[in-house]
Design brief:
By secondary structure, this protein is an alpha+beta fold. 21% of the residues lie in helices and 44% in strands. The chain is globular and about 45 Å long.
Length: 70
Amino acid sequence: RYAFAEEVKFDYSSLSGVTPGTMKREEIVKVWSMFLPGFDQTMHFLANHEVTLNINKNEARATCYGHALH
């Protein structure tokens, strides 16, 4: 829960086609708590992480390539 900022911009458009949006961390925890227990097991591969910091605006942007098996 506290690994996220209070609000997080999510972009899963390449996965689902849904327009990117902003979610509050409590909403993320609530949605994932209902969704993830439905899987017997999961495996996620993440690579090519890129993190950009903007100290003046107190912001960070992180991107990576991912492949998930459920």
